[in-house]
Amino acid sequence: GAAAGTGATALRTGARLAGVGAVEGGVIGAGNADGEGLLYSGLGGAAIGAAGGAAAKPIAYAAQTAGRAVASPFSGLFNAITGRGSQTRANAIAQRALSRSGRSLDDIQAEATAAQAAGQPMTVADLLGSPGQGALTGVGRQPGQAQREITDALEARQLNAGDRMSQALADGLGVTGTANQRRAAMTANRSATADANYSAARQGADAVDVRGALGVLDTRLGQTAGMEGTGFTGDGIDSTFSRFRNRLAADRVPSDVDAIELSDFDRVLGVKQDMQDSIEAARRAGRNNEARELSRVVSELDRALEASSGGYRAANDTFAQQSRAIEAIDQGQAATRPGARAQDSIDVFSGLDADAQQAFRSGVGDSLLKGVENQAPGANVALPLMRDRTSSLLDATANNPADLRSFIGRENAMAETRNRVLGGSRTADNMANMDDVQNVDVGLLANILRSPSQAAVQVCQKAANVATNQTEGTNQLLARILMSQDPKAAFSPVVRQQERREGRSRVAQALLRQILHQNSGEIQQAY
Length: 527
Description:
By secondary structure, the chain is an all-alpha fold.
């Protein structure tokens, strides 16, 4: 019947004991029938035994509780005189927290092991959830050595939360360095690869026909030229187009002579690459229309270069692939901004190749890491990462989403423990501290003279603390259990104590059932 370390509920335990009583009652009832009314006696005995089995445990528990209530004041007085704490009292509080958590000792030990492997110093109070945090709050609000140790440990642990979370995000997303560093490295690699690939494409390249690109430029510039004398002027795109047009062609003098057009492969390629740099700069600056217009010219130059060199297409495809990967860094950063829809970002990520996906992760990680690092010392760094939008994004992009989600959940549990134990109103704490530093006799005497009823309450409170072993020594023993990072070791004396109680309870239950069985015949006859 022991619930210690098993997570067994009272209902499940009661049902099992009712079954035990039913079997016993059925056997005894049938045996006492002496061959007459066998079925009636057996079923009646089983019914009586089931009721007795279910009731025996509460009755035995009530008897044990009454016995402890009688003995507790004497042990409390002895412990108060000797300055000792009550391990029995501390164990009982810890056992109650375990039972209320609804988890088995094996479950919380497994989670503690996972937390230690991840570098997270989770304690029993964290692992038990609200019941464990509540028990630790009761200790942490009382003046004394236990309060100081708990406060120091929780504050120091939370100060390191940002470092732990940053490392977990970096590992989970495979992020090394900042987004700017990654962008610079990828850009340098793209340039080196392009130099090699385009050098090969130059071999045997024919003259490049740039008339298609000039047509796009002249169409735009011709529209502006038509506004001469009207007072209207062109925009910044026109000046950019004019600059690139002057690099691709120059008019001859006199004007009736054909214009000179650039046809050298290397020079045309240089113009095209400068246009791509201008497009990236325009996008970063938010000049999307300029980027779109320039892209039309680049497309024409690409077609002209491909026509002049058989190896250009392969070089161009590689350059475009590397460019998309670089752009994915910005897409990852944009995915974490307010207003970004998680599903849209996930769809973008899913459509990228492996290199671009890693670049996207770099952008996501860079933004989230900045958010963690900008949190105030001691803040709950896990909470922003648990929002639905961010959580969904991490689930889709992390290399180990389940592990990262568990890590974030454990960090949130530790932050909640600190906030619950040390946060909130300090009125009760201040009153307890004032009472602790005052001379007890002087305070009591003042209350007797000023408010006899308050003095009576004070005396009763202190007497109750002694009677129930609620002393500073007991608080220290309980704090050691709740602040332990090894649940099984911490709960070992708790389980042994509960097993001893359950052993005595089982003996009492068996005796109660035996008395009931012996009188089952009379009970059946009465009904």
